[in-house]
Amino acid sequence: MVLKRASGAAIAFLIGMLGMLVLIPPAWAGEDFVLGGARVKAGSAASGFLAVPAGRDGAGTQIPYTIIHGTKPGKTLALVAGVHAYEYPPILSLYRLKAKLDPAALRGTVIMVHIANLPSFQKRTIYYGPGDWKNLNRVFPGDPAGTTSQRIAAVLNEEVVKRADVLIDMHCGDGNEALIPYTYWMISGDERFDASTRDLALAFGLPHIIIDDTRGSDLKDSKYLGNTAILQGKAAITTEAGFLGRTDEESVGLNVRGVLSVLRHLGMIDGRPEPVSDPVWIDKFEVVYSKWSGLFTPRAEMGYFVRAGQIIGTVTDYLGAWKEDVRAPFTGILLYVIGTPPCNEGEPLFEVGRVKEK
Ligand SMILES: [Zn+2]
After folding, report:
1. Cα of 155 from ligand 1 centre, angstroms
2. What's the N-to-C CA distance of the chain in angstroms?
3. How many angstroms is it from 72 CA to the middle of ligand 1?
4. Residue 262: is it exposed, middle or buried by C-beta count within 10 angstroms (0-12/13-18/19+)?
């Protein structure tokens, strides 16, 4: 018996050595990760499309995604780009990260949503989906029986938010927005939970952090993806890095570095996180909306420090006649300002943030 057992061990050892020689990946006792019909083995990655069924306002659509399923247990991090699909640096950063992240070296699982709003990407629309003219980031948690944007939101909530422990909703200035990099730290009121999302905001590394206590607490009308995650107990931040429909290297890099730093912060990959060490905290912010439809000419640039009452831009009508000088509501930083001429009644012109004193 002893001899038999020993020879069994020897055979197992030989098989193990042989496995290493032909580079068979080590088996992991972890479970497969199943999403949208795809079954992903531990230590591997898979890409595919989540189906958004057809509805009363027309055909269905798809949501391109990648799962990177690590060899060891850890958190499930959802990275969602393209909720606003004219916001390109977050979208581009995920393709780079997909190529960079090695499932064999990952603890836990990364869910990447490459382009949440594919109809908007295809039609190059800002703010709104081309079919129902709804803003995807105002219709969460969505409705499977609703219009296209609502159905996309419902699929994202079921398949991505509910599967995640941590979520980053990755935005930037839309195609018409000149915007400086910042992160929304959404306050839930639960001190311990908020400390964890504060650490996430710091880990992502952007130089300004908005302390945002304005999001609603009703999950049925959560509106924003990040808020939807938080109301279901998932740590979430909303990031903004990039502007004006550009694909500049600096903005793509901010998104790549931010995600890598969060992965390190969560212990999902090796290495030290690179948190922002002394951010500018914004404790009050206000979006100023246009009262007119016409043209907007900015007189201040993104990132400018502006005083209460200062003229930020001028609205003219379609014939070129002056309508209004639009002024800053309080003293602070111009977080973003519309950088292309069209302005429509009820749509944003700029956002000012007040700098929190120590
Ligand atoms: Zn956005």
Report:
1. 19
2. 74
3. 33
4. buried
User: What are phi and psi for residue 193, nearest 5 degrees?
Assistant: -60, -45
Centroid of ligand 1 to alpha carbon of 32 (angstroms) = 33
Could you tell me if 34 and 19 are in contact, meaning their C-beta atoms sit under 8 angstroms apart? no
Distance 2 CA to ligand 1 centre (A): 67
CA of 127 from ligand 1 middle (Å) equals 7
User: Residue 279: is the preceding peptide bond cis (ω within 30°)?
Assistant: no
* CB within 8 Å of 346: residues ≥ 6 apart: 289, 290
Cα of 335 from ligand 1 centre, angstroms: 13
Check: CB of residue 289 under 8 Å from CB of residue 349: yes
pLDDT tens column, 180-239: 999 999 999 999 999 999 999 999 999 999 999 999 999 999 999 999 999 999 999 999
Contact criterion met (CB below 8 Å) for 350 and 336: yes
Q: How far apart are CA 216 and CA 358, in angstroms?
A: 27
Determine the distance separating the centroid of ligand 1 and the alpha carbon of 177, expressed in angstroms: 10
The model carries a pTM of 0.91
Q: How far is CA 211 from CA 193, 224, 238, 306, in A?
A: 14, 16, 11, 19
pLDDT at res. 10: 53
Max CA-CA distance within the chain? 99
- Partnered with residue 147 across adjacent β-strands are none
Q: Which residues have C-beta within 8 Å of that of residue 211, sequence separation ≥ 6?
A: 185, 187, 281, 282, 283, 356
Find, among 278, 249, 275, the residue nearest to 262 by Cα: 275
* Strand 305-306 to 332-338 pairing: antiparallel
Question: Cα(183) to centroid of ligand 1, in Å?
Answer: 12
Type of residue numbered 91: I
Identify the CA nearest to 310 among candidates 333, 294, 283.
333
**Tokens representing 310?**
């200062």
**pLDDT tens digits along 142-175:** 999 999 999 999 999 999 999 999 999 999 999 9
